[in-house]
Amino acid sequence: MNILTAAEHETLLQIAQRAISRRVRGESVPTLRLTTFSHRLQATGASFVTLTLAGRLRGCIGSLAGYRPLAQDVQANAIAAAFRDPRFPPLRASEFPRLTLEISVLSTPQPLAYDGPQELIAKLRPGIDGVVLKRGMRRATFLPQVWEQLSEPREFLTHLCAKAGLPHDAWRQPEIEISTYQVEKFQKED
């Protein structure tokens, strides 16, 4: 999935990096002037911003469905990943220079039709599909990048259930809803 140009990748990375940089210094983040961006960055889009420090997750927040311009979505998710991910304390200024920033632009999640756990396992595409698992009001997602750590589909789904606050084997139940999506990912090159 490649819908953005290299220049658009760079623009989104700059938006995310500037927003985090300003916030970590206690400055306000300026409102984006959308008309200065390409039509793809002005269009509604969904993104995740993932922050790592020394190869370890430091924050990851995103949107599963587009509801605001992609440029604004990236800016808001960058700030949220750095300062509002409930798994981590807010980013400290001393951490900022060593931060690796990755942006994932998501396709629209599509329901995955399957008949039973074995067919679900067979239909998942490790390394390609991001997965949304939902039961009632509980929902969780793993980006396709998570397959790098959880390459076995059963293990992947078990951890996804835990992330959603569901029993580890809930993915085997018929009331579970599964959707998949793909991402275009890019990161700041050192």
Could you please describe the fold and organization of this structure?
With 190 residues, this protein is an alpha+beta fold. The protein contains 5 helices and 9 strands; from the N terminus they run H-H-E-E-E-H-E-E-H-E-E-H-E-E. The chain has helices at 6-24, 39-42, 70-83, 117-123, 153-163, and strands spanning 44-53, 56-62, 68-69, 99-106, 110-111, 130-135, 138-142, 177-181, 183-187. Strands 1, 2, 3, 4 and 9 form a 5-stranded antiparallel β-sheet that branches. It has a 4-stranded antiparallel β-sheet with strand order 5-8-6-7, with helices on one face.
Key words describing this protein structure:
190 residues; alpha+beta; 4-stranded antiparallel beta sheet; 5 helices
**How far from one another are the termini?**
24 Å
Provide the β-strand percentage band: 25-35%
DSSP strand tally = 9
Determine the structural class based on helices, strands and strand pairing.
alpha+beta
Rounded mean pLDDT score: 95
Structure at a glance:
With 190 residues, the chain is α+β, with helices and mostly antiparallel strands. It contains five helices and nine strands, in the order H-H-E-E-E-H-E-E-H-E-E-H-E-E.
Task: Give the SSE map.
Layout: H1 6-24, H2 39-42, E1 44-53, E2 56-62, E3 68-69, H3 70-83, E4 99-106, E5 110-111, H4 117-123, E6 130-135, E7 138-142, H5 153-163, E8 177-181, E9 183-187
Antiparallel strand pairs: 1-2, 1-3, 1-4, 4-9, 5-8, 6-7, 6-8
